[in-house]
Amino acid sequence: MSVFKAYDIRGIVDRELTMDLVERIGFAVSKFFGGDDMVVGMDVRLHSFRIAEALSRGLLAGGNMLFVGTVTTPVVHYASHVLGKPAVMITASHNPPEYNGMKIMKRGGFDLESHELQQLASMLEQPPPERRGVVYVKDVLSSYVEHVAEKFGRLDLSVGFDPANASGVVLKPLLEKTFKRVVAINDYPDGRFPAHPPDPEKPENLRQLQRLVVENKLDAGIALDGDCDRLGLVTAKGQVFRPEKAVYALLTYYAKPGDAVVLDVTMPLYLEKVAEERGIKIVRQRVGHSFQKPTAIKHNASFWAEYSGHIGFRDHNYFDDGIYAAFKILSVLTSAGVTLDKVLDEAPKVYEERLDFKTADPRKAVEEAKRRAAGLEFYELDGIDIRTKDGRLLIRPSNTEPLIRVKMESYTKEGLEALRKLLAQLLHAEF
Questions:
Q1: What are the structural domains of the chain?
Q2: 93, 290, 308, 410: which one is catalytic?
């Protein structure tokens, strides 16, 4: 299986992602950007520095390298933007410890799109033996911390913080600048992720944070994924505050009439009704931040968001930055005198279920489900989106794994059960 995915490079280190391959990727990246200086940052994984060394051997055959050390993906976005240089972030995000990879950014901090990544994959070759470039070490983390701290000032809130032993540990000083009290757990770097996987989308990875918030009587809890471009939030009562609830809060208390907002196809349908009532235009896009950001730019959107916890704001160059998104949501709600728990009470109640099914060929399996769905109303922006009287069933191929991803939602328990039966009919032959 290729390490070149839909919007990044990712694989098991020394099995799929070898140092020889990393070196060749480095040279390809240098050629792709015409030998320009490259910003390079890395997460806390045990092999990230080794990958940085191999990457440099390829990059330095073409130009210079600006090494910014152990940082988050949003810090590398920021560095690329302020320095006007292309960039590479060495990370495998939330994947298990044996994985690593790279996120490659154009000048200004925007990720390569899928077709550009495939173009890069076609440029792989061994770098020449001569080296003409040098490595410069540059501190951009301090500048990023000051930049974000200045944007939000001091918030009169107490928060719990769980960076999951991942790269978010470097952001603790930023939280201490912003909030009146910070209680942190798993705030030392350990690329083995001993406490729990760095994936706030999964509720089980938020349990420690939930207990921390309740036991310490804090106002909120903030969790981050492995490279900090996604967020997880916990309310004062210890409830998980899902990204779609964050979107509801932003539609209600932040976005203005006439604004556009970009949402991935998996975000609940009720958000469209909320937006319509407030005079806000919703633009749907397929899953993947490399698809969301260009769409947000095209529509000059107030923000964009994915169900997985990626959120990007116009006033932050649309970068998906988990800590910035957390600060924005908490700042907006504090100004409105509203808590996360109140938002949960206000938001429409919907019955939802998400399932993943392993299959050798996800796209073929989705096409087969589409054939069986003939006669039903559905949309095809990303997989098949089947609409029913009181809900919908979304079946789409994963962009990163050999999986079919399923999302069901309904306003009633009965409607959700009917969707389960429909799913069984559509995927029966495969599963």
A1: 9-139 (3.40.120.10), 143-346 (3.40.120.10), 351-427 (3.30.310.50)
A2: 93
